[in-house]
Design brief:
The protein has three helices and 48 strands. The protein is mostly beta strands. It has five domains: 182 residues, Sandwich (Jelly Rolls); 117 residues, Immunoglobulins (Immunoglobulin-like, Sandwich); 162 residues, Sandwich (Jelly Rolls); 67 residues, Immunoglobulins (Immunoglobulin-like); 89 residues, Immunoglobulin-like, CATH 2.60.40. The strands form nine sheets. Strands 1, 2, 24, 26, 30, 31, 33, 36 and 37 form a nine-stranded antiparallel sheet that branches. A hairpin with a 4-residue loop joins strand 18 and strand 19. It is elongated, with a radius of gyration of 35 Å.
Length: 681
């Protein structure tokens, strides 16, 4: 959109990939329901933004939504060859904004210039605006800018000519040595040019840096008070997609920035959480309380009280409204949103704004790259999905899961089925600076002989290189430090990604574990071991699709496991469609103190449960007479036998005539008595 020009070129369709090494413009589509909900909520909350938008006097405005205007003068003063020559076909070009601070920048087109050349050298690239007459001393030049890579920050000059567009007639009025990696608003007074017709030029004069981005250039009377929501998140939430079984309570967090020329006062934020049907699920006006003032260019982060636990799958939005004591000159940026998706089975750290590419530049095979996930409860891992960039055709890749030892990946737990990259995964192999091919590959984990069960805890999920370098793509907008790792096989060491990339790693990789979503749960009834190895466990499944099969770590294959000694056991319950879930059972030993008090060293009934025929075994501390009785649960004596003085009893008991059920067997000596559970089935 341009207020001062009527003709413009169409927007560039060039796909850009660039840095840490690279960044790539990659767009995914949202679902229609999510978009509709978002737009509806935006309209409603804009109505809540107190006051109408006050538009300042504007002489010139350009937001590059229609590409580079035809009346802009673009001049390449250095004649150098950009590393990304497919994008930078001129000294300044337009392309999509890859760093979305908020939804007001969604689908945004910006102007870009590079100083990364091959061979290296200083940039001298000009973007000159059409002539503008400055009517009075109240006018100012306003624009937004950022350096795409914080490690290679571009600098630039604002130049003005009062005669013509010849470069020799321009004079510097403002300069930035290193632009911020965050979108930053600049305001420069043009009072000295009141009554004059001027040309304004943006000159990239960086030397071997990366990419400079500029947007929303405006000449006019600047807005005095302009509070904007510039970043927002569910804090405490490292993830963009949660499986419903692993979702954690979500908190609220939002950053506001004073984008005006004057200090604003009594700044506060309200927040609401909505579902995709636009139902309000949570509201708070307590985002840490109001702050007294915020100076021009200053930012402040508000954190909400309380938390919200999503009750079901679907899209959830947090909407924020910022307010101030003064009349805001632009209320359109007082409102903003963030969202999270609760899925049946998918875990993800990355969002849809994919722009960074990472690989392990090591000649050896077997290198690993990935990151950790927090598993909230026992679950079955079925596969892992990754987005590969220019995968090496014919090479093999695998997914792996490792246990964590402290903060470092340790023992390998599971390895996926291998996948060999096909020509269709990378149909147009190319070199640096060329468009990339992308392949979304899902790597399944074997379901037999044992599924990939993961208990509650923190685990590393990664992909293993074959003989050639593989690259994964990630997104910078959501990133949690210390969660990504590399294994370098040549040195046999694990490295934190931040360490491996010399501090330039700042992304969440597109690497997503997929879980079973079997919805199988179970009640487990336990009879503890009485010291004779007669513990039992009965599992009663719920959910899933009956009938079920059972696989116990003790070797049992029905819903009942018997003759269990003290210890921890597992049972895998599998339903009729192949979904499996792992459960743990703990058996403890009880009754040993009673045995010892009665002068009994060993007291066993086996097998137990039985059909009524079992062996009674006792070892006494010294010769003694023993009386044994069997009682039902009402205390009625049903069977009795006396044994003469002895230190050892081994007797076959026949109670097949008894009904199925639970009984108590009591042994009495001269020192006391002890009881055992007896199960007849």
């Amino acid at each position: 959109m341009s207020y001062a020009s009527t003709a413009s070129h169409p927007a560039s369709s060039t796909h850009i990939m660039i840095v840490s090494t690279f960044n790539h413009k990659h767009t995914m589509k949202n679902t229609n329901s999510a978009k509709n909900c978002l737009m509806y909520a935006l309209c409603l909350l804009l109505c809540m933004a107190w006051g109408n938008m006050a538009v300042a006097q504007t002489l010139f405005f350009e937001d590059f939504q229609n590409g580079m205007p035809s009346d802009f003068i673009i001049f390449d003063g250095d004649g150098r060859t950009p590393v990304f020559s497919n994008l930078f076909t001129d000294a300044w070009v337009t392309d999509n904004d890859l760093d979305i601070d908020n939804l007001n920048r969604s689908d945004n087109i910006i102007a870009l210039s590079t100083s990364w050349y091959d061979p290296p050298g200083p940039s001298n690239d000009w973007m000159i605006l059409p002539p503008i007459t400055i009517p009075d001393s109240n006018q100012a030049l306003t624009w937004d800018a950022r350096a795409r890579d914080a490690d290679f920050p571009d600098g630039y000059q604002i130049m003005v000519s009062t005669t013509d567009s010849l470069l020799a007639n321009f004079t510097e009025i403002f300069s930035v040595a290193q632009e911020s990696p965050r979108w930053t608003r600049h305001i420069v007074s043009l009072a000295q040019f009141a009554g004059q017709r001027i040309f304004i030029g943006f000159r990239n004069n960086s030397n071997d840096q990366f990419i400079l981005e500029v947007d929303d250039i405006e000449v006019g009377v600047p807005i005095a008070h302009n509070l904007a929501v510039t970043r927002q998140a569910f804090i405490g939430n490292e993830y963009t997609i949660y499986p419903i079984d692993h979702v954690q309570p979500l908190n609220l967090n939002v950053e506001v920035t004073n984008r005006g020329t004057d200090t604003v006062t009594d700044v506060s934020v309200e927040a609401v959480i909505l579902n995709e049907d636009f139902t309000t699920l949570f509201f708070t006006d307590d985002m840490g309380g109001a702050i007294p003032s915020l100076a021009p260019g200053e930012r402040h982060v508000f954190q909400g009280a309380g938390s919200f636990l999503p009750p079901d799958t679907g899209v959830y939005f947090a909407a924020y409204v910022a307010s101030l004591a003064e009349t805001d000159g632009d209320t359109t940026d007082n409102v903003n949103f963030t969202g999270i998706f609760i899925s049946d089975s998918v875990f993800a750290r990355n969002d849809v704004n994919l722009n960074n590419i990472y690989g392990i530049d090591d000649a050896s095979s077997g290198n690993i790259i990935g990151h950790t996930f927090d598993i909230a409860q026992n679950d079955t891992l079925t596969s892992m999905t990754a987005l590969f960039v220019d995968p090496p055709v014919g090479d093999t890749v695998r997914a792996v899961v490792h246990a964590m030892s402290g903060s470092t990946p340790a023992q390998e737990l599971y390895v996926s089925e291998p996948y060999v990259f096909q020509q269709s995964d990378n149909p147009n192999p190319d070199g640096p600076g060329q468009d990339f091919d992308f392949a979304i590959i899902t790597l399944p984990f074997p379901s037999s002989p044992t599924p990939a069960f993961l208990p509650q805890g923190n685990f590393f999920f990664g992909v293993v290189e074959g003989n050639n370098l593989i690259n994964l793509i990630g997104s910078r907008n959501i990133y949690t430090q210390g969660k990504s790792f590399l294994y370098v096989s040549s040195s046999n060491q694990w490295l934190a990604a931040e360490q491996a990339y010399n501090g330039s790693f700042n992304s969440a990789l597109f690497l997503r574990p997929n879980f079973s979503n079997c919805n199988i749960d179970a009640d487990i009834t336990v009879t503890q071991d009485d010291g004779s190895g007669n513990g039992t466990a009965v599992v009663t499944p719920m959910g899933g699709t009956p009938p079920y099969t059972y696989s116990w770590s003790s070797g049992h294959t029905t819903e009942v496991a018997v003759n269990l000694e003290s210890g921890t056991y597992t049972v895998v319950v599998t339903d009729d469609v192949g979904c499996s879930r792992l459960f743990e059972v703990n058996i403890t030993t009880v009754g040993i103190d009673d045995d010892l008090a009665a002068g009994i060293n060993r007291f066993r009934l086996f097998p137990n449960p039985s059909q009524g025929s079992f062996t009674l075994q006792m070892e006494l501390q010294q010769p003694d007479a023993v009386q044994v009785e069997v009682y039902d649960l009402q205390g009625k004596s049903l069977w009795r036998k006396a044994f003469a003085n002895s230190t050892s009893i081994l007797h076959q008991v026949q109670l097949e005539q008894f009904a199925k059920g639970l009984y108590m067997l009591k042994a009495t000596t001269s020192k006391g008595s002890s009881m055992k559970r007896l199960i007849i089935h």
